[in-house]
Amino acid sequence: MTDGPDLRPREAWERYIDRKRPERTEHSMKSIYYRIRLFVEWCEDQGIDRVSELNGWHFEQYETERRSRDLAVMTLGKEMGTIRRFVEYLERIEAVDDGLSEKVPNIHIPKEARSSDKKLAAEEALPLLDYYREHERGTRHHAFLELAWSTAARLGALRGLDRRDFDAEEQLIEFKHRPETDSPLKNKTEGERVVGLPPEVAEAVQDYIKGDRWDKRDDNGREPLLTSREGRMGMNSVRRMSYQVTQPCSYGKCPHNHEIPTCDFREPNHESKCPSSRSPHQIRTGSISWQLDCGVPIKVVAERANVAIKTLKNHYDKTEPRKRMERRRRPHLDKLSYDPDHE
Question: I need a surface site. Which of 28, 69, 304, 328 has the fewest CB within 10 A?
């Protein structure tokens, strides 16, 4: 038995959440909160009164119970990983025996299940950009698509941009962590960065500011770059705009043989049901692959998109193996060539 605090599961959960909250974004904390809450409620149902009573059999039973719910392996793996880190915290404060966290089942997640291959491919994105540049230049949809594709930024980062973060003369955009006024970055201050924009992207954003943009302030007195009639767009509004702007019928025929004027996917709040529409994350994934295919060094892409190189390789680089070889290895093959007549 330990000599540390004698905590009930719910007390331990609340202490852990309070400890982690300053370190994580609100979105991340919601996931952590929910995963541990499920475990705590299970402990209470099982009559586990103190965390010091926990043992390997309990974790085995809980994992079996969760697996019976037909959870995706990725979901189950994330849940058990969160519980393991929770138990590691309990070890540190000596509320449970050392080594208990090693008894939490480690769920093997196959590489193919770790990330989705669904993305906005370059062959889809580039015609969309051509269409907006010619037919809807300077609209909010156009500015959003240009920024999302060229920067590969996350949804929250795009939503949190202010007008002052854009420099038309220097052709750049700056992402800043502003949690106190409702626009945090996922990686907090580590996510702050300045990203250069191609001239045509900077010009499109400038056209939007001069024309289609509502001159509004948000509830914190800031001037958002992407505005609605009320001020700063909400997360769901930006996500919905992403689905709208990536529907392929915007620039051509419907690939699903639907009649465009009567297609249900064109109706408000139904855009995400279109098989070809894409979320901000899928634009981000496609953009990262495209930038790599264009020959931009992986380190530069990682800095622009604010993603670790290892994460980029495992989760975002969706290039086919043959293309990956052409992109990364072909330029170096001349170094391996051997000429027997050369002395």
Answer: 69
Same domain, 126 and 265: yes
Query: Is 314 among the domain residues?
Result: no
CATH number assigned to the domain comprising residue 36:
1.10.150.130
Name every residue whose Cβ is closer than 8 Å to that of residue 290 and which is 6 or more positions away in sequence: 122, 125, 149
**Model pLDDT for residues 64-106, shown as the tens digit of each residue:** 999 998 888 888 999 999 999 999 999 999 999 999 999 999 9
What residues make up the domain containing 25? 9-113
Structure-block tokens of residue 185: 């970055």
Examine the domain organization and report whether 272 and 153 are in the same domain. yes
126 in the same domain as 24: no
Question: How many domains is the chain built from?
Answer: 2
Q: Do 60 and 177 sit in the same domain of this protein?
A: no
Whole-angstrom distance, CA of residue 163 vs CA of residue 156: 15
